[in-house]
Amino acid sequence: MGYYTNYKCKVIGKLVNKVKIAELEKAKIIAEGLSGKLKEIALAGIENELNIEKSINVNTIVTSVVGYNPFDDETKWYEHEADMKKISKEYPDVIFELSGEGEESGDVWKKYFVNGKMQVCKAILVFDEFDKSKLK
Q1: Is the distance from CB of 66 to CB of 87 less than 8 angstroms?
Q2: Strand order of the sheet with strand 108-114?
């Protein structure tokens, strides 16, 4: 037996890497001076790098690393932290948000991954104070 969790993952943003963007813009200017097929290939590669956030398909990336899609149904994904750290290293400027809800009551969390590092945020359950005026 194992512990099942419902996982969801999404890209919530991209860290601004002004140096990398500036280098890519310079490379684009140089590539535009090329000719023929070489120009076409160089510009396509540069454009792909400039637009990488738009091309990220989290399900495809995670499935390729894990070997199955952990977002379809409840699953046992014990290596999710190591796997997501590895994925975030491959996309160092992308902020990934992995959320989970486990079998046990109150096991709700979010984990953020950027460039191989992780932040864990556990849910905090708060009750309203007693208010006599709300009695029905």
Answers
A1: no
A2: 5-14, 94-102, 108-114, 117-122
Q: Which residue has the tokens 């963007």?
A: 21
- Nearest-angstrom CA–CA distance, 47 and 24: 9
- Rounded Cα distance, 25 and 3, in Å: 48
Q: Give the residue among 19, 17, 38, 39 at the shortest CA–CA distance from 29.
A: 39
The full set of domain ranges for the chain reads 5-134
Region at 13 (left for phi over 0; alpha for psi -120 to 50; beta for the rest): left
pTM: 0.70
64-116 residue pLDDT tens:
999 999 998 999 999 999 999 999 999 888 899 999 999 998 899 999 999 99
Q: pLDDT at residue 20 above 80?
A: no
